[in-house]
Amino acid sequence: MKLNERGLLVIISGPSGVGKGTIRKALFNIADNNFCYSVSMTTRKPREGEIDGQDYFFVTREEFERRIKENGFLEYAEFVGEYYGTPMDYIEKQMELGKEVIVEVEVQGALQVKERIPEAVFVFIVPPSKKDLIERLENRGTDSKQKIKKRIEKAEREYSLAYKYDYIVVNDEVNNAADRIYAIIRAEHAKTERSIHKYYKLMEGKE
Ligand code: 5GP
């Protein structure tokens, strides 16, 4: 028998512009992983280069609201005027298959997941400095000045919620941040509270 064969639900969260998406991609490039990414659904328009079904499922507001009514989301949030949500169906199935499911969400969404699935692993990404965050949002060049201002104001409010997370990871360098998350996932599997029941069964010869 293998201990801990069920995969973990790992929530990567933090203020917009902090580099969550880039870190997540770097995490998937680390060899020897069995991660799978939960593709979110959104009503915002695709940015250049984004692919439907890979970066997001891009849908209309009507479609999104229909799914809300059908309880089709693990969590969802309205973020600077657009909906973002994590489709429910995929996650449970992948965890049962032993995959680590990586979800990338903004802060409201992460806290909703915490209410529903407290045993998930919650990682809050922070920039090395506030100046760095502002520069990243401005340099991304995809949002209007007004949207950037809204994202910065929101980020300031979100920092005050970091204490609700299990881990804080500084995005000083993308690969370093991804390595830290990888190490966190390995360590989480070894946590006593996750594995002790199976270990007892093993020692009793029941499995
Ligand atoms: P962006 O428009 O920059 O792709 O995403 C805006 C914010 O929404 C980011 O902070 C991103 O992490 C977050 N986000 C992406 N997918 C989801 C989701 O499924 N649920 C929630 N709550 N936030 C999401």
Description:
The chain is of the alpha/beta class and 207 residues long. The chain has a domain at 9-38 and 100-203: Rossmann fold, CATH 3.40.50. 44% of the residues lie in helices and 21% in strands. It has helices spanning 20-28, 61-69, 88-96, 107-116, 130-140, 145-159, 174-189, 192-203; strands spanning 9-13, 35-37, 40-42, 56-58, 73-79, 82-87, 100-105, 121-126, 167-170. A 5-stranded parallel sheet has the order 2-7-1-8-9, with helices on both faces. A 4-stranded mixed sheet has the order 4-3-6-5. Helix 1 crosses helix 7 and helix 5 (130-140) packs antiparallel against helix 6 (145-159). The protein is globular. The protein starts with 8 loop residues before the first strand and ends with a helix. Guanosine-5'-monophosphate (5GP) binds at residues 16, 20, 40, 44, 75-77, 79, 84-86, 104-106, 108-109.
